Amino acid sequence: MSEKQFTVPPHLEQYTAPLAVFRAANPQYTHFVVGGLVFSNPTPTTDNPSPESKVLLLRRALTDSLPGYWEGPGGGCEETDDSIVDAVVREVREESGLHVSRVVDLVGIEEWVKLKPDQVVKAVKFHFLVEVWEAQGFIPGGEGQVVERWEDGVLLTPEEHDAFVWEGVDEVRASLEGKGKYMVLEDEGRNLVKAFELVR
Q: For the Nudix hydrolase domain, which residue ranges apply (predicted)?
């Protein structure tokens, strides 16, 4: 299965523009960052007619910046990325081992400024809701094969993340309020909660 085998809805077309073109159209930013939020949406059963959707959270490694904080897959755009959405697909694959099949919607946009000794970083992060092939029962490279408990097949990059969990909206919201079991940054937490609204 080719990495390019993913779809993007028409209303997100601007994020498929060549990265150089997108950068030129947004000169107010020096750094472009993306995030891809992946959900597990169990099929209703007789015993559980309304199963809870859960989002994939990754814990930042102790050797990385913001150690111990939880987040969705994501990172900075690279020169080799064809577009913003291509960067999302790459980051999700690199940080979770999962393969994006569809970029569903833009969840939110986060901006920040960071002062460095040699420059002023003006960053923007685009949080997207995505779907993955594994959730549909496909194994990339072996199309048509059924995967059981695909949620357990997350593959981490140890130097960046050291644990993963699938968590529901109540715990994510509690963690955002400082009452839960996960450390999350405020903007990250708000976008996680907002994404739950989109999958309902």
A: 29-190
Give the whole-angstrom CA distance, residue 164 versus residue 40. 13
Long-range CB contacts for residues 41-45, cutoff 8 Å, separation at least 24 = 41/135, 41/199
Whether residue 66 lies inside any domain: the answer is yes
Give domain status of residue 82, yes or no.
Answer: yes
Query: Burial code of 141-158, b = ≥16 C-beta within 10 A, e = fewer?
Result: eeeeeebeebbeebebee
Report the C-alpha gap between 96 and 154 in whole angstroms.
Answer: 5
CA distance 138 to 150: 9
Domain that holds residue 109: 10-199
pTM, whole model, 2 decimals? 0.91
- Pairing of the two strands 70-71 and 100-116: unpaired
CATH of the domain at 160: 3.90.79.10
Per residue of the chain (200 residues), what is the pLDDT tens digit?
Answer: 444 689 999 999 999 999 999 999 999 999 999 999 999 987 766 777 678 999 999 999 999 989 999 999 999 999 999 999 999 999 999 999 999 999 999 999 999 999 988 889 999 999 999 999 999 888 776 554 555 689 999 999 999 999 999 999 999 999 999 999 999 999 999 999 999 999 97
